[in-house]
Amino acid sequence: YGISSSAGKLYICDTQLGGLEIIDLQKNEFSYFIPTGRGRISKPVNCTTDGKGFLYVADTERNQIVIFDEQLNYISSLGNPREFKPTDVKVYDNKIWVCDLKSRQIQIYDGVSYQLLSQFPELSQRDAGYLFSPTNLFVTKQKVYVSDFGDFKIKLYDHNGKYEKSIGDYGKSPGQFVRPKGIAVDQDNHLYVADAGFENVQIFDEQGQLLMFFGGSYEGSGDMWLPAKVTLDYQNLSYFQKYVDRKFILKYLIYVTNQFGPDKVNVYGFVEYR
């Protein structure tokens, strides 16, 4: 389901394994990470890393965020399993941002003490910014993007939790969604949305206008089969530049995970003319 990258490594959440696959691009190695003891994970759906190399895993069966250091030693966990069902996690500005399906909110934890700082939105179902089924999030310098699977929209908030607007709605036309899941935002504020119904990724500009889409129902390499997560990577370009035509420069990588089919991870590149 989920995928995250750090310098030289990819971390892939495997809900059937009860652990993660780790691809070490620098060493050209593939390994399984199945922690035991206090760090045991059951159904990891999404993960992320921070500037220290710590790994944060959202586990929807353990119902906690499980935290490991750069050596993959268990550090801590956050969230009360009886009141918590995390579906995604991001680290930004020394804070841990979590999609919680149980409360239908975004919860923000201190990055050092792991104490809950705040949560949003505090709205009723009649309000446009209410979250019915928050499944994925992305945090930028100014905004928090949330994929609301239950409302077929991507909803935008400021860092204080104030609702600003939504992108997309239910439908079968380009720019609409059927099963929106993973989201990512590039450095130009272009929004990427993986849709498991369309089996593609749509790209929107900052105003919410559709720019293009790629993928499609699986027939061969480059297509998608129930895509779940889309993640952008600016750190590992050197490992993939050799696959790009010499007329182009690779600006960043786009990883898309597929829940079925022979190609579980697709790697795309955003390129520009030299």
Question: What are its keywords?
Answer:
four-stranded antiparallel beta sheet; mainly beta; 23 strands; 274 residues; 0% helix
Give the topology string: H per helix, E per strand: EEEEEEEEEEEEEEEEEEEEEEE
Strand content: over 45%
Distance between the termini: 34 Å
- Figure out the total of helices: 0
Main sheet, how many strands, which sense, barrel?
4 strands, antiparallel
Spans where pLDDT lies below 50 across 5 or more residues: none
Report the helical percentage: under 10%
Overall, the morphology is globular
In round numbers, the mean pLDDT is 97
Q: Provide the gyration radius in Å.
A: 18 Å
- Strand arrangement within the widest β-sheet reads 1-2-3-4
Beta strand count: 23
Structural class: mainly beta
Blueprint of the fold:
Elements: E1 3-6, E2 9-14, E3 19-24, E4 29-33, E5 44-49, E6 55-59, E7 64-68, E8 74-78, E9 86-92, E10 95-100, E11 105-110, E12 116-120, E13 134-139, E14 143-148, E15 153-158, E16 163-167, E17 180-185, E18 191-195, E19 200-204, E20 210-215, E21 227-233, E22 248-258, E23 265-273
How would you sum up this structure, described in words?
By secondary structure, the chain is mostly beta strands. It is built from no helices and 23 strands. A four-stranded antiparallel β-sheet has the order 1-2-3-4, with no helix packed on it. Strand 18 and strand 19 form a beta hairpin. The model has no long low-confidence stretch (mean pLDDT 97).
